[in-house]
Amino acid sequence: MKRTDGNHQVILAKRPAGLPQLTDFEMRMIPLAPIGPDQALVQIIWLSIDGFMIARMRPEENYAAGVNPGDVMQAYGVGRVTQSNRTDRHVGDFVFGPFGMQQWAIDDGNPMTRTLDPAFGPIQSALGIQGISGWSAYFGLLDVGQPKPGETVAVSAGAGAVGALVGQIASLNGCKTIAIVGSEAKAAQTVGEYGYTASVVRGSSDFSERLKQAAPGGIDVYFDNVGGDLYDDVLECINTFGRVVVCGRLATAHLTDTAQDFGPRDHNTLLVKRIRKQGFLVSDYAARFTEATSAIAAWQAEGKIKLAEDVLVGLGQAPAALIRLVTGGNNGKQLVRIAE
Ligand SMILES: NC(=O)c1ccc[n+]([C@@H]2O[C@H](COP(=O)([O-])OP(=O)(O)OC[C@H]3O[C@@H](n4cnc5c(N)ncnc54)[C@H](OP(=O)(O)O)[C@@H]3O)[C@@H](O)[C@H]2O)c1
């Protein structure tokens, strides 16, 4: 794509009423202005599709600024610097940053933007195993969940980007692991490829019974990527002094009114079983990202950890890719490749 082609973008056309639909998004093209002093131009190659985007489309206050109708959809991306008036970026550098769902982005020194070291593997790994997915799994499990060897760790969305890594890191720490997934195919994959001890498919009326059979000694750490009814079911199986790591809320993030997220209250169980339930944001660990990157790179080099990538091609596929996260259509890290 030549720069003169302008900048194609995915914008939020209207706030989703419930789960996002393709009609909630539109494409537009804007001309590209020349870069200014202290700016660099980035051609985006890979877009990361992440769960946070769902709640960001809602009007309620969040931990970060949301997306309003007419705005470019937020997204992390990896791209190549094609022009630079910045001293810290050179033409040809690969960079990671909060670039948005568009073909071209201006790098004007956002502190999140960083130059990538291609020695760490394929550049898109900075969006998955070597990036937010890997860091979330590493710190969420080890710092918040604090699993001990011999304990049982259950993971919702256990075949997903964060979940698959949590399962493998828990195994590396001597834990038994239970993946909760949306299909028989993912169940086979989590045990066969990611080494989970067992896998349970969600959504059936006998789910609780099957979870108890898969974890006969109960669950010590529940790494929860989704919340919702599944949390209520898993809570029944959590052991005394168990830990619940609240990583994500994909089952409820689309609700237009958070008051609709009702269910059995968990106070009684948390008190009687002395369960610790704690949320976290991966950004809380920014000062330690290098620690996680190094640990994961070492495990990768030893062939002890991996993550499937699920790639759609073309910027216009980005909304469909996002919808896959809430329908369970993705398998591993959901990416969109938008340039060679
Ligand atoms: N706290 C943080 O700082 C942080 C950082 C990164 C990510 N996250 C969160 O971590 C979670 C996982 O992110 P990811 O990028 O790795 O996504 P992912 O797990 O690759 O994809 C989402 C998966 O969630 C499952 N799911 C979707 N709707 C569900 C529902 N209603 N009930 C149960 N399961 C459902 C589906 O798997 P199955 O069909 O197999 O169940 C789907 O494939 C997201 O909630 C994300 O927002 C949090």
In short:
This protein has 340 residues and is an alpha/beta fold. The protein has helices at 52-56, 132-145, 161-172, 184-192, 207-214, 228-235, 267-272, 289-301, 318-327; strands at residues 7-12, 25-30, 40-48, 77-84, 94-97, 104-107, 114-115, 152-156, 176-181, 198-201, 219-224, 238-246, 276-279, 309-313, 333-337.
Write a structural description.
With 340 residues, the chain is α/β, with parallel strands linked by helices. It contains 9 helices and 15 strands. It has helices spanning 52-56, 132-145, 161-172, 184-192, 207-214, 228-235, 267-272, 289-301, 318-327, and strands at residues 7-12, 25-30, 40-48, 77-84, 94-97, 104-107, 114-115, 152-156, 176-181, 198-201, 219-224, 238-246, 276-279, 309-313, 333-337. Strands 3, 4, 5, 6, 7, 14 and 15 form a 7-stranded mixed β-sheet that branches. A 6-stranded parallel β-sheet has the order 10-9-8-11-12-13, sandwiched between helices. A two-stranded antiparallel ribbon has the order 1-2. The chain is globular. The termini are close together. The model has no long low-confidence stretch (mean pLDDT 95). The chain binds NADP nicotinamide-adenine-dinucleotide phosphate.
**Nearest-integer average pLDDT:** 95
Low-confidence stretches: none
Task: Estimate the helix proportion, in percent.
Answer: 25-40%
Shape: globular
What is the CA–CA distance across the termini? 9 Å
